[in-house]
Structure formats: structure tokens, C-alpha cells
Design a protein that fits this description.
The chain is an alpha/beta fold. The chain has 3 domains: 166 residues, NAD(P)-binding Rossmann-like Domain (Rossmann fold, 3-Layer(aba) Sandwich); 155 residues, Dihydrodipicolinate Reductase, domain 2 (2-Layer Sandwich); 84 residues, Alpha-Beta Plaits, CATH 3.30.70.260. 36% of the residues lie in helices and 25% in strands. The chain is built from 14 helices and 17 strands. Strands 7, 8, 9, 10, 11, 12, 13, 14, 15, 16 and 17 form an 11-stranded mixed β-sheet that branches. Strands 3-2-1-4-5-6 form a 6-stranded parallel β-sheet, with helices on both faces. β11 and β12 form a beta hairpin. α5 runs parallel beside α10 and α13 packs antiparallel against α14. The mean pLDDT is 94. It is an enzyme of class 1 (oxidoreductase). Pathway: Amino-acid biosynthesis; L-threonine biosynthesis; L-threonine from L-aspartate: step 3/5; Amino-acid biosynthesis; L-methionine biosynthesis via de novo pathway; L-homoserine from L-aspartate: step 3/3. Its EC number is 1.1.1.3. Belongs to the homoserine dehydrogenase family.
């Protein structure tokens, strides 16, 4: 059978890994796909010293790859938004199937890209866009297709998880660990996408769409980073029996879909609370299967390449199928996507960890609890730390309540003369405990 010819655009960390895996495992991959898969051309501005590209056609024009009539599948690994979007749409226009690891591209422009692919009867595969080598998209889209997904929650950014792990295990401050993460190459020189949750929000947007059958809506995701978490918060959480993780959470409710990324207290006994370092993990709760968890490396050259090449194999297996007989991009048939709204953050419900500095004098704690009670907020636990200062840290764990009520309560607490500075708020998830 005629070999399938692939064009790789981008030969950096993931592009290089993809090329090497395709070359090293060519025989095994051909046995799985049913025909040979060969790299016909590589488009990249720079060569990769870890890749032996002898005999491969090279160009610095990625659009030439997208237009090459010999190529069947274009693999987009250049990253970013604008050029990547133009490249993918060009490839689709020229009848090429596309494989990408670009979560930002899919989260922001995926609806447009999938529509174009439907019209041209080509596939766009994007397993590697979420959680690196973990086949989470395939698991939800295909393996759990019998289920009504209730919720999912994940550690989907390794940099943030590394920082939170180091802060807990070694009692270090955020800024100190961030500097080490940058030195180790886990975080970029500008770490905003990682530590402020933007990267995780891209991935969560994709997961929510395939879990609940809704269009991609990145602009409606609530995003909060970990830069304000202190080692005191980490310590107090431990005292309460919790650990802090930077989570993406999406839940189906009667009113709509929650779509939120933020620091979260998780019971220390929960499996996901014990996922450490740069590893990723995603919990999925389905009505038939219950809770399942998917764990593994969320980044890296060959772990991500594993997902990219798996997508290429999937494309090759279904090359001759028409669009109505392929697995839909977002798990549900395009005409069956739901118009369920994304809930505003103030309409979501969680429990809360609150930390504030209060003046050391009688009656202050009563004022705080009175405000919480007035908003219908029940208290689970209180820690009041004795200090030699004239102000003391007060830590309160609440039961689940509407975020708007907590917003109102915090505003009233911060208005008290007896409270110094702002109230630190961290949301709490117990995952059915």
C-alpha cells in the first residue's frame, strides 16, 4: 500500500522528538497503521542537533510544506497563535489532514479550524495539546463515550505543580522556587502563561468541550494564578489536612458549565493530591464508570511526541473514511453541540479557605463569624495563631457556598478596622468525599 507522507513544521523540542520517534519506531508504527509513514519534508527555521535529517527535504518556509502536493498530513509544531493558525488553515485548504500539539491554537481558534476541516473532509488531531503524553483526549472522547461526564479536574501545568510541590516539601517561598524552575527550563523567562494559569486554561477549555459537547470558549474561562500563595498558606493547609494544587476544574450543573483554573485545597488523602513535581494528572467523573484518573508526564520531547505520533497513526487508519464516519473533533457530532452556557465565576459553588490578619483584641473573631453567618456561610474549622505581635493570623475553612456570597462576605470583612490588609481566599474541592 502507498506510504503516507508527513510534513513536519517546527523542529524544536516536540518537533525533534516527533521526527525521532517516527524514524526510530518506523516498523512498529507501520504495523499499527497498516502502511508506512514517512517524513517527506520538514519546515523549520533552525535545524535540531538531536535529529539526523540526512536525506529529508528541508525548507525554512512552513507554508511550502502546507502546499506540497506530495504531503498527506501536516504536523504543526511551531506553537503560538497567528502564524500557526494561518499555517493550519492553509494546510486544510490544500486538502491536508493536520496534527497539532498547540493548545493555545485549539482553545482560541479551534471552532473556526474544525469548521474548515469539516468542509474540506479532513481531520485535525490534537491529543498532544493537553497533558503531553497522557492520552486524555482519546480517553474522554472515545473510552468514556458511554458516560455522561459529571466533572473533571486536573493538574495540567507541570511548572505550577513543581512550584507547589517544592513549597510544600521544602518550605520555600514562591519566588525562590520560580527562579529554580526557570533555571531548570520548566518555566519560561516570562512565566506568566504557567504561573497565572493561562496555559492550564487553554487545556481546560479543550477538555471541557470534549467532556460536555460544547463549543470551545476560552474567553469565558476564569483564571487565577499561584503567585500570591505563601508558604504559610501551604503550612496551614497541611494542618487542616489538605494540600494546595493549581487545578483546572470543569463541572456540569443545572445552570451551566463551570470553567475555572485556580489554586485549590485538596484532601491530602486524595490520589491527585499526591501527584508531585512536573507530573500531570486528570480526574474524570462519569455517571457509569465513576471516578478515573490519568497520570503521566505533561511535557517533554518524546512524551509529547508519543501523543503526536499516535494522532498521525489515527489519521492514517481513517484516511479513507468520510467525515461522518470519523470520531468527531469535539467528541459529539458538530450539529449536536450544546448551547449550555459557561457559568460566571460568581455563580459557582465551592468551599473556601480564608486567611486574614486580625488585631489581637476581644470580639474580633465574633465579628468575622457574624459576617459569614449573615451571608449563610457555614464554618468547618478555625485556626487562630498566637503571636507576639498585635495582630494574629486567622484561618477559616468554610463549607460550600455560592461565590457571590463569599465575595460579599470578604468585602465586609476587609472593611473592618480590625482587619489588616486583604483576605486571602483559596477554593476547596473534596471530589465527592
Amino acid at each position: 500500500m502507498k506510504p503516507v507522507k508527513v510534513g513536519i513544521c517546527g523542529l524544536g523540542t516536540v518537533g525533534g522528538g516527533t521526527y525521532n520517534v517516527l524514524k526510530r519506531n518506523a516498523e512498529e508504527i507501520a504495523r499499527r497503521a497498516g502502511r508506512k509513514i514517512i517524513v517527506e519534508e520538514i519546515g523549520a527555521r533552525h535545524t535540531n542537533p538531536d535529529c539526523d535529517t540526512k536525506g529529508i527535504q528541508l525548507t525554512d518556509d512552513v507554508f511550502a510544506v502546507a502546499k506540497n502536493p506530495e504531503i498527506d498530513v501536516v504536523v504543526e509544531l511551531i506553537g503560538g497563535y497567528d502564524v500557526a493558525k494561518e499555517l493550519v488553515l492553509t494546510a486544510i485548504e490544500h486538502g491536508k489532514h493536520v496534527v497539532t500539539a498547540n493548545k493555545a491554537l485549539i482553545a482560541v481558534h479551534g471552532n473556526e479550524i474544525f469548521e474548515a476541516a469539516q468542509k474540506k473532509n479532513v481531520m485535525v488531531a490534537f491529543e498532544a495539546s493537553v497533558a503531553g503524553g497522557i492520552p486524555i483526549i482519546k480517553a474522554i472522547r472515545e473510552g468514556l463515550s458511554a458516560n455522561k461526564i459529571n466533572w473533571l479536574a486536573g493538574i495540567i501545568n507541570g511548572t505550577g505543580n513543581f512550584i507547589m510541590t517544592e513549597m510544600r516539601d521544602k518550605g520555600r517561598e514562591f519566588s525562590d522556587v520560580l527562579a529554580e524552575a526557570q533555571a531548570l527550563g520548566y518555566a519560561e523567562a516570562d512565566p506568566t502563561f504557567d504561573v497565572e494559569g493561562i496555559d492550564a486554561a487553554h487545556k481546560l477549555t479543550i477538555l471541557a468541550s470534549i467532556a460536555f459537547g460544547i463549543p470551545l470558549q476560552f474567553d469565558k474561562a476564569f483564571t487565577e494564578g499561584i503567585s500570591k500563595i505563601t508558604r504559610d498558606d501551604v503550612q496551614y493547609a497541611e494542618e487542616l489536612g489538605y494540600r494546595i494544587k493549581h487545578l483546572g476544574v470543569s463541572r456540569r450543573t443545572d445552570k451551566g458549565v463551570e470553567l475555572r483554573v485556580h489554586p485549590t485545597l485538596i484532601p491530602e488523602s486524595a490520589l491527585i493530591a499526591n501527584v508531585n513535581g512536573v507530573m500531570n494528572a486528570i480526574l474524570v467523573d462519569g455517571d457509569a464508570v465513576g471516578q478515573t484518573m490519568y497520570y503521566g508526564p505533561g511535557a517533554g520531547s518524546e512524551p509529547t511526541a508519543s501523543a503526536v505520533v499516535a494522532d498521525i497513526v489515527d489519521v492514517v487508519r481513517t484516511l479513507t473514511a468520510d467525515r461522518d464516519n470519523r470520531v468527531p473533533h469535539l467528541a459529539f457530532q458538530p450539529s449536536e453541540l450544546s448551547d449550555m452556557p459557561i457559568l460566571p465565576m460568581d455563580q459557582t459553588e465551592t468551599a473556601y479557605y480564608l486567611r486574614m490578619n486580625a488585631q489581637e483584641k476581644p470580639g474580633v473573631l465574633a465579628m468575622i463569624t457574624s459576617i459569614l453567618g449573615g451571608e449563610g456561610i457555614n464554618i468547618e474549622a478555625i485556626i487562630q495563631k498566637a503571636t507576639s505581635e498585635d495582630q494574629v493570623p486567622v484561618i477559616i475553612l468554610t463549607q460550600s457556598v455560592l461565590e457571590q456570597k463569599m465575595n460579599d462576605a470578604i468585602a465586609k470583612i476587609e472593611a473592618l478596622d480590625e482587619i489588616n490588609g486583604s483576605v486571602t481566599r483559596i477554593r476547596v474541592e473534596n471530589f465527592g468525599r
